[in-house]
Prior knowledge:
mainly alpha; single chain; 14 helices
Amino acid sequence: xxxxxxxxxxxxxxxxxxxxxxxxxxxxxxxxxxxxxxxxxxxxxxxxxxxxxxxxxxxxxxxxxxxxxxxxxxxxxxxxxxxxxxxxxxxxxxxxxxxxxxxxxxxxxxxxxxxxxxxxxxxxxxxxxxxxxxxxxxxxxxxxxxxxxxxxxxxxxxxxxxxxxxxxxxxxxxxxxxxxxxxxxxxxxxxxxxxxxxxxxxxxxxxxxxxxxxxxxxxxxxxxxxxxxxxxxxxxxxx
Length: 239
């Protein structure tokens, strides 16, 4: 079939980037029969190129006796894989398609990565474009899982920055385990932040914050059903 001519900026991209860009172009507008067929072919080739991109990672895991066809096999397994953690962290510093990167990050969202992965995950979060909110949420969730006391100051500065939007959600929730006046005050302030109100309520409930009780009482009357529910749950833990 004849494909439309792609723009010159494709010349500066690798094959995977070209395919990804073309896929987004095709699915982002009304499509003709020809474009639907092209999108099917592009999607298939994109899947092939994404698999090729992680060949080195899978090869290194294989040397450690970890035989998988995709990094998502680790995400979906119920078995621990401590021997994979250092390799995954190493590859987190490399450039990958967002979907592959998400798989690596989710594979590191395990207790075995505590004390090892937090620094590189924080760096990745900070360096990921803010318009990639979903990927940043995944990274934030991983940090919330593997963080230690050494990471608390970074979490504080990240959650008070409203430009981080809803990607902060799991980091806000994690502050419920940080028993300090500063953590409590930040969470109370976040009750006015529409992007993370439910998580702030849940975290304050977890820390049984009597200081936040009056404000949470007011939130029982919210028009938002989720906020009302989280306020009620928090008050039950505080009382």
